[in-house]
């Protein structure tokens, strides 16, 4: 295993972190297959992984309920006496906070679930812009100060799918952020905060944890023939997982890549890759860019996320509606995109809130008939996640 410094936190982290939102299950998402998951985690730790990441809702019955991942991890660490060897990361469910005391309430619940009296890295989970303003009004920064001085939390940060401007705004408001969890893979350099966000984190020495390195497995399953043809032309032959992970580890701004592993085979393969120094040549870097361009030809519309059509006077999140529709087509995985669509976009900002006023059309740099495109998005995703 190879290790990196996690920014100014001073933590030395394995460059592969164990994400625990896709542990093996029996019957339902809430029923973790504990025997199999224990084997996977033990193998991971014995072979150098020293960071485990979980969150309040992972492996819950509902999309954002009280999940079983933290409970299982707490039990696993206790029974195997691993707590002190592991950097434990979990997340405060920002969207559930209604009053100031809720921060402490949820932290105490999480400490109990995790059977520990401290959390190494505590992230405000999936901060959206409205959530950030809400938690700021509830004095979240005082809460974080208190957590740090009481020792209940060693390092604080946030996870987010926001655009780079908001990322920087949040980072600049609090000097004690030490870690940010952000999405990155070779398709997403310009999606959400992307490479500009990582660059800023590097500049201010805030550690970066990476989510979705394989885009939920979509960069490695059902590879389109056009993409496979390109991979076959590479100077060095690599598996799709090797391409995706080594792309990140060839960057100098991706400190710890979280992989949400589902089987022991995946753990073994990822550890093998994480333990190999593999410098990608300039030609092969160009090939990765060509693969990304090829994936983009499968997009459902031409939206470039330029933002000129925003804000919609009726509150429609045009950019993200069109983007999730695009990703669903590009990756041929409607269910995964639907999960993003329904969890990242508020009820009243989804495509079905468009009233066809046409005010946005003249602003579209790609000359899209935006309400018509939104209608396609609505027909595709429907109005409830259950539709899938
Ligand atoms: S057509 Fe739809 S998306 Fe465009 S401005 Fe009107 S309500 Fe908003
Ligand atoms: S102006 Fe057009 S291309 Fe730009 S974000 Fe809006 S819909 Fe997409």
UniProtKB/TrEMBL annotation:
<dbReference type="InterPro" id="IPR053135">
    <property type="entry name" value="AKR2_Oxidoreductase"/>
</dbReference>
<dbReference type="Pfam" id="PF00248">
    <property type="entry name" value="Aldo_ket_red"/>
</dbReference>
<feature type="domain" description="NADP-dependent oxidoreductase">
    <location>
        <begin position="15"/>
        <end position="276"/>
    </location>
</feature>
<dbReference type="GO" id="GO:0016491">
    <property type="term" value="F:oxidoreductase activity"/>
</dbReference>
<dbReference type="InterPro" id="IPR020471">
    <property type="entry name" value="AKR"/>
</dbReference>
<protein>
    <submittedName>
        <fullName>Oxidoreductase aldo/keto reductase family</fullName>
    </submittedName>
</protein>
<dbReference type="InterPro" id="IPR023210">
    <property type="entry name" value="NADP_OxRdtase_dom"/>
</dbReference>
<dbReference type="InterPro" id="IPR036812">
    <property type="entry name" value="NAD(P)_OxRdtase_dom_sf"/>
</dbReference>
């Amino acid at each position: 295993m190879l290790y990196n410094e996690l920014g100014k936190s001073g933590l030395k982290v394995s460059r592969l972190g164990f994400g625990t939102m896709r542990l093996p299950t029996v019957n339902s998402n809430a029923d973790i297959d504990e025997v199999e998951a224990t084997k996977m985690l033990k193998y991971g730790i014995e072979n150098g992984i020293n960071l485990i990441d979980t969150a309040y809702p992972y492996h819950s019955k509902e999309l954002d309920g009280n999940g079983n991942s933290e409970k299982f991890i707490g039990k696993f660490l206790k029974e195997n006496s691993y707590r002190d060897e592991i950097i434990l990361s979990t997340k405060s469910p920002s969207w559930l906070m209604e009053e100031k005391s809720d921060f402490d309430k949820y932290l105490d619940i999480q400490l109990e679930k995790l059977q520990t009296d401290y959390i190494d890295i505590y992230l405000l989970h999936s901060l959206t812009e409205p959530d950030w303003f809400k938690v700021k009004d509830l004095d979240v920064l005082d809460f974080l100060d208190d957590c740090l001085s009481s020792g209940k939390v060693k390092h604080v940060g946030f996870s987010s799918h926001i655009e780079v401007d908001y990322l920087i705004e949040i980072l600049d408001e609090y000097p004690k952020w030490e870690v940010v969890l952000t999405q990155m893979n070779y398709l997403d350099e310009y999606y959400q905060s992307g490479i500009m966000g990582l660059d800023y984190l590097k500049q201010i020495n805030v550690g970066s944890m990476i989510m979705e390195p394989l885009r939920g497995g979509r960069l490695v399953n059902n590879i389109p023939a056009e993409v496979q043809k390109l991979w076959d032309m590479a100077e060095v032959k690599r598996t799709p997982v090797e391409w995706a992970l080594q792309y990140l580890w060839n960057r100098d701004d991706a400190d710890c890549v979280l992989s949400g592993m589902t089987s022991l085979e995946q753990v073994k393969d990822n550890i093998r890759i994480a333990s190999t120094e593999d410098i990608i040549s300039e030609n092969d870097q160009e090939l990765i860019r060509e693969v990304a361009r090829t994936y983009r030809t499968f997009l459902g519309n031409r939206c470039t996320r330029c933002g000129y059509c925003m804000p919609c006077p009726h509150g429609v999140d045009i950019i993200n509606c069109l983007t999730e529709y695009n990703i669903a087509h590009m990756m041929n995985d409607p269910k995964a995109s639907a999960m993003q669509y329904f969890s990242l976009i508020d009820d009243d900002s989804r495509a079905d809130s468009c009233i066809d006023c046409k005010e946005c059309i003249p602003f579209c740099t790609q000359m899209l008939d935006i309400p018509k495109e939104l209608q396609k998005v609505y027909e595709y995703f429907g109005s409830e996640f259950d539709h899938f």
